[in-house]
Specification:
binds pyridoxal-5'-phosphate, about 375 residues, 7-stranded mixed β-sheet, globular, alpha/beta, about 40% helix, 3-stranded antiparallel β-sheet
């Protein structure tokens, strides 16, 4: 689009000389994978989120897939997740042959509604993937209680929630197994990457083995494969970037929160809904800034108007069950999750990243106001 104005992207990672220095160190060490920088990154992250065990892998999706495997999911099983999420929340167990079941969300939290979740349980249900959408913690205790009542595995998809707190303690520290993701739009950006966090040493060992071709580090032969595995390794180069990002994570999160607070203020008199506010038990980590347009308003022209002015935006996030491949494979359609469908039809992501300048935010809000 040749509007002559500077483009404002939707997301942008923030790295500096520190990451450059750490990456150079790894390059010069010659230890590019399976090396000590991975161990260090895992230790630092585990400490930060209060999880006893962290295993770094090649993506958030790989992390979810490995947890779907340790949960023992397979053909004939069902797993329940939220449709207001990224496709990987469901794909991870479809990879293992389990069928996706979508439960509706709570309009106030945008996360799984525990009552709807319980209603969706059948004799075949084996696991729940609970998402912390937009970085706001899900109803972890209620969901955990439901899972233990019905004997289900619980996987927390916290890909968007690094740094968030539930009941005063960080996501990662609550005894549940879950994942974070490090794609460039995430709070901690390594390019590609993710981790599994777990409170079980056995699960941790299993994940470490499966990310590395099913090898077992028992002091025996390197080429000793005890199970089917993958190449889901993170590289030491990415781990180095991760360490640099971890060192400044508090600063990054504070900058994100400040950008969100400025949007809150600038949008006060604009006719959009701001969503899923924090409360005493749920302190979000700012991942994206989402607003909902008023019911009945047309979103497509607003998106087009913003884009015409060089402002990136997205209809974020569409329902997973309405994606073409889901409709084709499972026959899902409109009406399955009415609350999620309503919210997903009205939400809009605004440019959001730590170094977003106030004047650019003013431009975004003015453009939005005009488009409405
Ligand atoms: C980013 C994300 C993932 C994982 O993404 P990768 O691109 O595989 O790292 C999974 N679930 C949710 C909700 C996400 O936002």
């Amino acid at each position: 689009m040749s509007t002559g104005v500077r483009e404002i992207p939707l997301a942008r990672p923030l790295h500096d000389e520190r990451e450059e220095e750490l990456v150079l160190e790894v390059l010069r060490s010659g230890w590019l994978s399976n090396g000590p920088t991975i161990d260090r990154f895992e230790e630092l992250l585990a400490e930060r989120v209060g999880a006893p065990y962290v295993a770094a892998v090649s993506s958030g999706t790989a992390a979810l897939h490995l947890l779907a495997r340790t949960a023992g999911l397979g053909p004939g099983d069902e797993a329940i997740t939220s449709t207001l999420s990224f496709a990987a929340s469901a794909n991870c167990f479809i990879f293992e042959g389990a069928a996706p079941v979508f439960a509706d969300i709570d309009r106030r939290t945008l996360n799984l509604d525990p009552a709807a979740l319980e209603d969706a349980i059948t004799k075949r249900t084996k696991a729940v993937v609970a998402v912390d959408i937009f970085g706001r913690p899900c109803e972890l205790d209620e969901i955990r209680a439901i899972c233990s009542r019905h004997g289900l595995a619980l996987i927390e998809d916290a890909a968007q929630a690094l740094g968030a707190e539930y009941k005063g303690a960080p996501i990662g520290s609550h005894g549940v197994s879950g994942i974070f993701g490090f794609y460039p739009n995430k709070q901690l950006a390594t390019g590609e990457g993710g981790v599994v966090f777990t409170h079980s040493e056995t699960e941790w060992q299993l994940v470490r083995s499966m990310r590395h071709h099913g090898q077992e580090f028992d002091g025996g032969s390197w080429f000793h494969h005890v199970r089917l595995g993958f190449n889901y390794r993170l590289t030491d180069i990415q781990a180095a970037i991760g360490i640099g990002q971890l060192e400044k994570l508090d600063k990054l999160l504070a900058l994100r929160a400040a950008v969100a607070a400025r949007y809150d203020r600038l949008l006060e008199d604009v006719e959009v809904e701001r969503l899923c506010p924090d409360d005493a038990d749920h302190r979000r980590s700012w991942f994206v800034y989402i607003v909902a347009l008023p019911p009945g308003s047309a979103r497509e022209p607003v998106i087009e108007e913003l884009r015409a002015q060089g402002i990136a935006t997205a209809d974020y996030v569409p329902c997973v069950h309405l994606q073409p491949y889901m409709r084709e494979a499972y026959g899902f359609g409109e009406g399955l999750c009415p609350v999620a469908e309503d919210m997903a039809s009205r939400t809009l992501a605004l440019p959001f990243f730590p170094q977003l300048e106030e004047e650019d935010q003013e431009r975004v809000v003015e453009a939005l106001r005009a488009a409405l």
